[in-house]
Amino acid sequence: MVDAAKTPSPRASRAPARVIAVGDKVRFRLGIGKVVGRVIEDRGSIGVSGRRLLRVVVKAKSPEESAEIEIPADEAELVPATGS
After folding, report:
1. 13-53 per-position pLDDT tens digit
2. Is there a domain that residue 13 lies in?
3. CB 17 within 8 Å of CB 39
């Protein structure tokens, strides 16, 4: 029989999530798909009910098609840095 007091919970073994910062690459839903962009400004907790907003630039093939948009931080997923 397993002693419940000695078994760590699944949450205890996870590392805390890193806070998204300026310069990080993030993935988020835009329309029907997901896109990757780079955080260029942390707007702070100015969203509805104090939601934290991020200003993100999404690059396209041509500079004319690139866009800067604001998204809620809780809808952004950090893209791991590639090791180079």
Report:
1. 555 677 899 999 999 999 899 999 999 999 999 988 999 99
2. no
3. no
> Of 52, 36, 56, whose CA–CA distance to 44 is shortest?
52
What is the number of domains present in the chain? 1
Quote the domain boundaries for residue 29: 18-78
Question: Considering the domain boundaries, does residue 56 fall inside one?
Answer: yes
**What is this structure's pTM?**
0.73
Residue 27, beta-bridge partner list? 36, 77
Q: DSSP state, 65?
A: G
Question: Residue 42 phi/psi, 5° resolution?
Answer: -100, 110
3 lies in a domain? no
Nearest to 35 by CA among 61, 51, 70, 59: 59
Rounded CA separation 70/56 (Å): 6
Residue 48, in any domain of the structure: yes
